[in-house]
């Protein structure tokens, strides 16, 4: 079925896996910056800017995962219906 094909593609597509790995790395960096001891702000005055950058990087990584998943779903759906159409044409 189409749902099974999409599930398999999302599980095995290298672009989706890479985007998820990038998201995990961004999440780790974000967590590291936001779990720093408060005294660190005195030693690193640029820390608030780095926190903003980490938050934006996390948002971008989440968008990349969503984009990769949508593109994969679209590609599989299109291929699936192309195959169904070709089978119908073959039968006629």
Which tags fit this structure?
single chain, 92 residues, mainly alpha, 0% strand
Short description:
With 92 residues, the protein is mostly helical. The chain has helices at 2-12, 14-34, 40-43, 47-91.
Q: How does this structure look, described?
A:
The structure is a single chain. The chain has 92 residues and is mainly α. It contains four helices and no strands. It starts with a helix and ends with a helix.
Strands, helices and their partners?
Elements: H1 2-12, H2 14-34, H3 40-43, H4 47-91
Helix pairs in contact: 1-4, 2-4
| Rg, alpha carbons | 21 Å
DSSP helical segment count: 4
Residue stretches low in confidence (pLDDT < 50, at least 5 long) are: none
Give a short account of the largest sheet.
none
Structural class: mainly alpha
> Number of DSSP strands?
0
* Shape type: rod-shaped
> What portion of residues belong to β-strands?
under 5%
Q: Ends: how far apart?
A: 22 Å
The helix-strand sequence is HHHH
- Average pLDDT for all residues: 90
């Amino acid at each position: 079925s189409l749902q099974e094909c999409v599930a398999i593609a999302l599980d095995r597509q290298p672009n989706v896996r890479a985007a998820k790995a990038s998201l995990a790395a961004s999440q780790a960096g974000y967590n590291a910056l936001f779990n720093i001891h408060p005294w660190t702000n005195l030693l690193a005055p640029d820390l608030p800017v780095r926190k903003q950058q980490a938050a934006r990087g996390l948002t971008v990584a989440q968008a990349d995962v969503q984009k990769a998943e949508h593109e994969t779903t679209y590609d599989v759906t299109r291929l699936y219906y192309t195959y169904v159409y070709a089978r119908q044409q073959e039968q006629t």
